[in-house]
Design a protein that fits this description.
This protein has 170 residues and is of the alpha+beta class. The chain folds into 2 domains: 4-64 and 159-169, no CATH class; 73-130, DNA Binding (I), subunit A (Orthogonal Bundle), CATH 1.10.30.50. It is 21% helix and 27% strand. The protein has 5 helices and 7 strands. The strands form 2 sheets. Strands 2-1-4-3-7 form a 5-stranded mixed β-sheet. The radius of gyration is 19 Å and the shape is elongated. Bound molecules: zinc ion (ZN). Zinc ion binds at residues 84, 86-87, 89, 114-115, 117-118. The site of zinc ion has 8 residues, from helix 3. This is HNH endonuclease. Keywords: Endonuclease, Hydrolase, Nuclease.
């Protein structure tokens, strides 16, 4: 299935997202379908929407198009799906991999989501110094991810569309 084009509320093209992501945005009332695949609908128990080719966001979002996503604590938590980078449990804090006292900065590649206990345990040390291992490496969101972050959705997960929601001809 092709990607769906996302327009800002101002009709300015922003990005493309997967069909699944587009449907989630429509189902969450964050976007409306501007153009649909002719003759195709998504059907499930309580869902019947056209298969979107183009959707438009209901609310205008400021997204740096083809630029780097601005770093934010909230963005790091969303990117990491609120999972602690050290133990995988629920994270509520942001940890600087290289501590700020060691010259570490507020960047995507130097920050990870962390649970309060691990953040406290690691304290003012690098993972090596603290004897802690990162379960996954921090990464910089792509421009498409930046759009999802602006909408409060993670780049690779967030809201899941039910597997049984299939595309059928109308
Ligand atoms: Zn943890």
């Amino acid at each position: 299935m092709r990607e769906t084009l996302v327009l800002n509320a101002s009709f300015e093209p922003l990005s493309t997202v997967s069909l699944r992501r587009a449907v989630v945005l429509v189902m969450q009332d964050k976007a409306v379908v501007e153009q649909a695949h002719p003759g195709l609908r998504l059907r499930a128990a309580a869902v019947d929407i056209p298969v979107p080719q183009v959707i438009r966001l209901c609310r205008y979002v400021r997204v740096p198009f083809r630029q780097r996503a601005p770093w934010s604590r909230r963005g790091v938590l969303v990117r990491d799906r609120h999972r602690c980078a050290y133990c995988g449990r629920r994270a509520t804090t942001v940890d600087h991999v290289v501590p700020r006292s060691h010259g570490g900065r507020d960047t995507w590649l130097n920050t990870v989501a962390a649970c309060a206990a691990d953040n406290h345990r690691k304290a003012d040390r690098t993972p090596e110094q603290a004897g802690m291992r990162l379960l996954s490496q921090p990464f910089e969101p792509t421009p498409a991810d930046a759009l999802l972050l602006a909408l409060g959705l993670g780049p690779s997960d967030g809201v899941k569309l039910p597997e049984w929601l299939a595309v059928r001809a109308a």
